[in-house]
Description:
The complex is a heterotrimer of chains A (303), B (274) and C (282).
Chain A: H1 2-35, H2 37-43, H3 46-49, E1 53-54, E2 59-60, H4 63-94, H5 97-112, H6 115-135, H7 139-142, H8 156-180, H9 184-192, H10 197-207, H11 209-225, H12 228-233, H13 251-258, H14 265-302
Antiparallel strand pairs in A: 1-2
Chain B: H1 7-12, H2 16-19, E1 26-37, E2 40-51, E3 55-59, H3 66-73, E4 83-91, E5 94-95, H4 103-109, E6 110-113, H5 124-134, H6 140-153, H7 157-160, H8 173-185, E7 191-195, H9 203-216, E8 221-225, H10 229-235, E9 238-243, E10 246-252, H11 253-258, H12 263-269
Parallel strand pairs in B: 3-8, 3-9, 6-7, 7-8
Antiparallel strand pairs in B: 1-2, 1-4, 4-5, 9-10
Helix pairs in contact in B: 5-6, 5-8, 6-8, 8-9
Chain C: H1 3-43, H2 46-50, H3 64-94, H4 99-113, H5 116-128, H6 136-161, H7 164-172, H8 177-205, H9 232-240, H10 245-280
Amino acid sequence: MRRSADDRLFRISTGIFAAMVLALVAGIGFELWRQSSLSIAKFGFRFWTGRVWNPVSGEFGALPFIWGTLYSSLLALFLSTPIALGIAIYISELSPRLLRQPLSYLTELLAAIPSVVYGLWGVFVLTPIVRKLEMAVPEALRRTPFFSGPPLGVGMGMAAIILSIMVVPFTSSVAREILKNVPIAQREAAYALGATRWEAIKVAIGYGKTGIIGAVMLGLGRALGETMAVTMVIGNNPQVSTSLFAPQYTMAAVIANEFTEAADDLYLHALIEIGLLLFIITIFVNIISRFFLWSTKKRLVRA
Amino acid sequence: MITTIDMERFNSALAPSAVMLENMNAKISVRDFDFSYGSAKVLHGIVLDIPDRQVTALIGPSGCGKSTFIRSINRMNDIIPNARAKGTISIDGRDIYSADTDVVSLRRRVGMVFQKSNPFPKSIYDNIAYGPRIGGMRNKRELNELVEKSLIRAALWDEVKDRLHESAFALSGGQQQRLCIARALAVDPEVLLMDEPASALDPIATTKIEELIWDLKVNYTIVIVTHNMQQAARVSDRTAFFMLGRLIEYADTKTIFMNPKEKMTEDYVTGRFG
Amino acid sequence: MSNARIRKIISAIAESLCGLAVLIALVPLVLILFYVVKHGFTSLNWAFFTQMPKPVGEVGGGMANAIVGTLILIAIAALFAVPFGCLCGIHLSEYPASKFSSIVRFAADVLNGVPSIVVGIFAYGLVVLPVRRFSAMAGGFALGVLMIPVVVRTTEELLRLVPPGLREGALALGATRSRAVFSVIVPAALPGILTGILVATARVAGETAPLLFTSFNNRYWTTNIAQPMASLTVQVYTYANSPYEDWIRQAWAGAFLLVIIILVLSIIARVSVRRLERMNRP
């Protein structure tokens, strides 16, 4: 009898702490909502389509930041995914046994470097190099919208490069797990039909397809929320532009830069509303990626 | 597991004349074949001739090396690190372990079906078309014909002809295995290696596979590993008995089961061990 | 050229591209470490560790307050996250199949993906706004929230690894559930749990964004957690954005220190994970 009462107490008390985790997630959402109420009330849907961000006149439109975040993240995904997959394939399928541990450790090291250090290095080391590269872009390409404007070094291109470096280790380590769990029977079937090594690898990738998509989306989620490194190299100019040379602004960056400068409540609420959107978008991406990863895990475990 | 082995009789069991074929054409010729995983030697001096268009069964207790041996015929063991082969295995007179062998082409000539069926997560059609496609076949009509022919040969066509584009995983275990056979047949091999193809299947499905093997041998040289002696007796023309990595006896199936020359063979087939 | 030959060439090219990908990824790693060491190591001096930042424009000074500040913030974060995270992890491992547990697990994963700056806003609203003051407590709280998902997940996983025979043995001896868990199972998993805490700490030691408007920054020395507090990361950021060469030099030094701290933490974590794996092998 004493045992079951103690059990109940145990379950409930640990359960309270577990519930706190739920409360945190809900609390964050709620708090963001509450603290952005002024801005939501004033601008409504116009907030998301407005291009003008003018704290002085009290005109707040978040489109440039949404654009900056999405564009930089998608560019980063575009750059990082092939590299991350290449690394995952190399480490799990091609590399000599002895190299596996050190290589995977080195890629994890990339993930451990703090964002502000990436930013510092990005500003002082990489930007001059990228600026030289930008200046070397041929005239013909300069006329396209992707390379228009003065080559400053800082800008969307730099942000995409830094973001992709930061995203690679995440995507590659998850992809590696997926590939590791593809049953060897699949590759054997391919080899027995006369497949080359690359063709057998393609079979393995096809088997783990959903999981790899999940891995890529995980990287996307990471890129969307990245703050410090981006704000140090993107130029922090709220304009909407497709040019890689143009300095732009992301949601996370504007919050980081202007939060402590916000003189009035409306300004603060506008910034927090951007935070709310960032929260919603990253949760959404996260959920989708977890779904992909979960359904792959089910199939791999069943096999 | 037998506890005492008469080493002298063991070593003398490898009388070459018993394993070479005189008047039949040997499709596959094995001479002095050794195989090791790292420092562990698992096959010792195998000498064997496998006749064309017949079913040869490999039997023996678990761990005797029969699976390793059959996987050596299409060099599937190459995938395993630290695996080393010595000696020769010749198909139609050409040693497949020579330095200039193209393993990719070898595996199209020598197909394999595995113990547990392993269809790709694709449709039935795409599974069978996989081999021809990587071989360069693009023409829709040719592929359709080839898929149909392979499924007919594997005695699966009637059951799946209306659902070729459904997932292969929707099939039953026995059907999946026949699908894998069809997939192997689609690249037009000359030899078909089967590593315990029915061991994961129920008796009815097993019977279907055995009937299929009997039909297939008209066109293909078949080598089958089985731990089920009744199956070997039912299905094969010749049987090879392996033990501890050595070939103990090799003769036509009737002799092995009714009138084996070696005591160890007799002990095994009468169920005294293994 | 035969079909087989073409395919083999394609295979070789594809494989080398994968190897190339590894090299491409290693280049920035090497470059970052190189420059951080090059600019940072040479800027490290005794003053860096012992002195306070000098007024704007003056050369010299150090980051003593920021270093201590970071340690204090991490301590606050751990004080908050470790009990919460561990108890939550314990619940999830003891009742793995319940609906509640699945929801909590999902929430922990979601929390893991929330951008750190958003967590900072949350901490701002909860801890800064009510008292209208930046404080180390707010910063520590934000970092703690970031640590919780990692601690929860590693605690749960490690507790699940403990052989079930241990729990059955303890219960058979008449121990209550809480007794069995806390006196037998948790100690058995303790090294792993500590490793998880180390990993979580390494993650938040490098965070900057959530501190920008919670613990803010402080030019002076303080250990009062109700006051704004300097931190290594924020200081590096501030100095990096400044036009003063000496400050930028110090920023590199700070970055170097940060990287060393995180490297040490992650090496310790990795080594103990390997030791644990070896111990758990039957």
